[in-house]
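Hello,

Our lab assistant flagged a job as stuck in the queue for most of the afternoon. It eventually completed. Since we weren't sure the result was trustworthy after the delay, we are filing this so someone can double-check. Below is the sequence as submitted and the structure that was eventually returned. Let us know if re-running is recommended.
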Amino acid sequence: MSELDKLISELAATARNTREAVRKAKEETGKEAAGCFLGFGPEELADAAGLLPVSVWGDDREIEKARRYYPAFFCAPVQQMLEQAMGGEYDGLLSAPKCAMIMPFYWAALRSAGQNFKTAVPHIPVIPVVYPANRKGRSGREFLASEYRSAGKALEKITGKKITEKALQDSIEVYNRYRSAMREFVKEASGHPDIITPYLRHMLIKAAGCQDKRIYTEKIGRLTRLLKKEPVRDWNGNKVILTGILLESEQILKKMESHNLAVLSDYLLQESLQFQTDAPVEGKDSFYRLACRFADLKFCSVAMDPEKSRISRLCEEAIENQAGVIVCIPSFCDPEEYDYPLMRQALDEKGIKHICLELNTSFVSSQAETLLQTFAEMERGREK
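-- returned structure --
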């Protein structure tokens, strides 16, 4: 097995068993873990407080215990996260007293998530962060910076460690290096679809969420350098662009591979949108710099964008690269469902092949499989 294959296998194994990966990361770093739910939770704050930030997204499962708190037609990732927590899957990983779940409030469905979590899982403290809709103006940036300061104080109370300006600056530098390395990786990976399949691409990105970013950045940088040494081979399949919240389905990702579909790029909240934008180099302080990062974010449904720039960007990239588009929406996800009619209209007008996969339970995934097969056949027909 080559060095490249070993590294790919190692990172994929990390993402495959996140619980074990977090346990090992805690041992390696000597840190307790803090959960960061649904992306953009200020991981730099947790890092500066001496904690190990861990990404929390839920997973594809049937909901039982969480039904006591949510109706069946509620945002899928929120229900899945609470189901995991109520089942004890975070116990031992998020260990009281020095642990927390950082809970972002982007849209209406998340307003009750923190309160329900506090009631259902009282031994894990919740730190809420409210994100402004009017995020680009000075007032929005100042508001979010104040939310980060409040979250920082809550973390200081939990850990007993003060978040100094120097510590937060250092954490921002660590995360900016990580984001830069990830952008380089996904760019290089798109040129090697014979090596980096849709499933492996997802797993390699996902592995970042359960490791210290300093360690992970070194690994993904080394993987990218090894990938650059590989010859670029002709690809006889089709390429697609993913967009939405997440595509956390091994079944669907491996079906994409069997249908000879490769991922050109993505605009997924769980993947490339996490590292699309760096914190700026300058700002009145590091809390404000972190707020500016969210303000500068593009192409994301949970960050208000009246111009819907994601739609025009998707059309441009799809036409330029002769790629199809796959929209990935968790069941009952309001921001994505509001955007999709406009997106569909624009893609249809431009003649861009696309499908919308609504993913929640294994039953829905089976329906998505059929849609994916039809889409792959349409793409092959276009090629001919």
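-- support follow-up --
The delay was a queue issue, not a problem with the job. The result is valid. Residues 118 and 126 are 6 Å apart (CA to CA). Strands lie at 33-37, 52-56, 100-105, 126-130, 238-244, 261-268, 324-330, 354-359.
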